[in-house]
Design a protein that fits this description.
The chain is mostly helical. The protein has a domain of about 120 residues. It is built from six helices and no strands. Helix 4 runs antiparallel to helix 5, helix 4 runs parallel beside helix 6 and helix 5 packs antiparallel against helix 6. The longest helix is centred in the last third of the chain and has 34 residues. The relative contact order is 0.11. About 10% of the residues have low confidence.
């Protein structure tokens, strides 16, 4: 391929043209993005009563967030719980071949039932939990979410206790 040599004056002209175009594009960009809506200061935001969330709604949202927070904390533990149940069942099956281990096997079977019960409690809670909508009074919503918080806390306790006992039995020789 043959290249046509450019003389220096043509090269300089082209370079100046490209530099001007790049600088123009940058200047236009700064003008476009720099001329956006000015930021509001804190007093303007707090003075706008139309955007404030009513206290009742904040209370309801806080309670809802607490309930869902516990759910989100324990939900991932369900898989661990079922894995633990499988490990316990496996160990119980092995130990059941030795008559001297019947007491330990019975203890493991109770732990397995407790893990199943905790799993079922979580499933029941999830099936029965109904986020409250606008058609319910504030007092009814607060009462419902408060009861749900107690309920999901109980499920958490069941799960934690069942998993602790199961893990303890797995570690024993």
């Amino acid at each position: 391929m043959n290249y046509i040599p450019l003389n220096k004056s043509k090269t300089n002209t082209i370079m100046r043209f490209l530099n001007l175009n790049i600088l123009s594009a940058i200047a236009i960009g700064i003008l476009l993005f720099g001329c956006g809506k000015p930021a509001q200061n804190e007093s303007e935001v707090t003075d706008n009563k139309d955007t404030e969330i009513p206290d009742d709604v904040q209370v309801e949202q806080t309670l809802y967030d607490e309930v869902i927070g516990v759910h989100d904390e324990i939900m991932p533990k369900l898989e661990d719980m079922m894995n633990l149940k499988g490990d316990l069942q496996e160990k119980a099956d092995l130990l059941s071949q030795d008559e001297k281990q019947s007491e330990k096997v019975a203890e493991m079977e109770v732990a397995i039932k407790n893990l199943e019960g905790a799993d079922e409690a979580m499933m029941n809670w999830m099936r029965n939990f109904k986020p409250q909508r606008d058609n319910v009074s504030h007092d009814a919503v607060v009462e419902y979410y408060t009861k749900q918080k107690v309920s999901i806390d109980s499920v958490r306790t069941l799960m934690e206790n069942a998993m602790a006992k199961g893990a303890e039995l797995i570690k024993e020789e």
